[in-house]
Amino acid sequence: MSPTPLPRPATRQALAEDGSSRTVREAFWRGTIQSLPFLVVMVPFGLLFGVVALEAGLDVAQAMGFSILVLAGASQFTAVQLLGDNAPTIIVILSCLAVNLRMAMYSASLVPWLRGATTAQKAGIAYALVDQSYALSIQEYERNPGLGLPQRLAFFAGVVAVVCPSWMVSSWVGATLGQAIPDDIALDFAMPITFLAMIAPMLRTPAHMAACFVAVLASLALAGLPSGLGLLIAAPLGMVAGALVEIAAERRARA
Amino acid sequence: MTNGTSDATVWLVIVVLGIGTFLIRWSFLGALGNRDLPSWVLRMLRYTPVAVLPALVAPLVVWPAATGGQPDPARMAAAMATVAVGLLTKNVILAILAGAITLFGLLYML
């Protein structure tokens, strides 16, 4: 079954494989190194966001306002596109918040791993909780259940140190250099590939497979709904499917 | 802005979205404090990443924006190669490489 967080490193023998012997500094650098492949995603998309923002009529300061204050790629593209189309302000805001609602699920799923963090630490995590920092961190926590809270926080910080500045800087470059960026090299697919590559190794049990399968089917069936809404129905369906399969497997193991 | 929307409106959108998005991310992590979650909630939360992230990308794989929403064999094959290598090797980097090579190889050949 899925590892659940241990309150403290269990025994000395268990230290070798579960990450509990790592120092805070090692955890930070692991986060940094593991997020380097994501530069392939963040940099082109950041550049593209800068370009698209200027094409929609924003200035460089506004593009940076989005990348620093909102810091959420998909919703930034949504906002810029709707602003460019002169959509009503309330529609722009509601659509983008709907796109970002999935992050409430990220927030909930981090609670068991990050309980005990200070309010300031939680605020920092909340600010930098993007798809990439969530996906990399939860993967690391599940793989190394013995990590202590300081190591978990350090890993998250290491990821954020790569992922967030690269998004901000590349959107600034895109907004400044504008049209000089080639748009014909199939980079649209960098995001799906990196996420699939992260998820596949996490499909360890039939329950994980079931959650993934149900969520994918439902998201395809609900793709016609306004952006973000289909996901908000599909993902919980997948989570329920995973939980049900887990319960069934436990019953079978006990019988 | 150069079209109908004023600069002040754009900044309003940025600030409201910034605050709203922060509150969404803060929601459970901040509000629950350090209370214990009931076990049925924990059971469901375990499946958050494997449910949300695949559901997020599935429509992008099946109906890629780059082809105007038309299903594209190269992108489908790249997605399948990524998942297959990721499942078999448990290695994220190898899976990304497999997907990228499949995508560019097929785009080049087709």
TrEMBL record, chain A:
Protein name (record): AzlC family ABC transporter permease
One Pfam family per UniProt: AzlC
Cited PANTHER family: INNER MEMBRANE PROTEIN YGAZ
InterPro entries: Brnchd-chn_aa_trnsp_permease
Subcellular location per the Swiss-Prot or TrEMBL entry: Cell membrane
Family: Belongs to the AzlC family.
Entry membrane topology: Multi-pass membrane protein
Assigned keywords, A-Z: Cell membrane, Membrane, Transmembrane, Transmembrane helix, Transport
TM regions (residue ranges): 36-54, 153-173, 185-203, 208-225
Lineage: Bacteria, Pseudomonadati, Pseudomonadota, Alphaproteobacteria, Rhodobacterales
From TrEMBL, chain B:
Sequence intervals crossing the membrane: 12-32, 44-66, 78-108
Keyword entries, A-Z: Membrane, Transmembrane, Transmembrane helix
A Pfam match: AzlD
InterPro entries tied to this protein: Brnchd-chn_aa_trnsp_AzlD
Protein name (record): AzlD domain-containing protein
